[in-house]
Amino acid sequence: MSKPFEVTDATFEEAVLKADRPTVVDFWAVWCGPCKMIAPVLVEIGEEYDGKIQIAKLDVDHNNQSAFQYGVMSIPTLILFKDGEEVERLVGFMPKEKLLAKLTPHL
Length: 107
What we know:
Elements: E1 5-6, H1 12-17, E2 23-28, H2 33-48, E3 54-59, H3 64-69, E4 77-82, E5 85-91, H4 96-103
Parallel strand pairs: 1-3, 2-3
Antiparallel strand pairs: 2-4, 4-5
């Protein structure tokens, strides 16, 4: 089972850009209501697509360098990276079905 894992500015390159499978980075913050709503959806996706995708969480309050580098202006922002490149960007809360419709073509 692939549970979401924490990524930081310092670990971003190794954990996300050099990952051996597509990685969704959830740019979030503790105080963000929609971030709390989408978190369990991401856990479900990580479990259902174990081995095909991994879910990383980056707290923008403590890791603003990565958020700035990727132009994250509002949260939650989900960016799917594949082979070190951004291939999909989703902003705001959305239901699981809509998320999967955007993510699965890249798997």
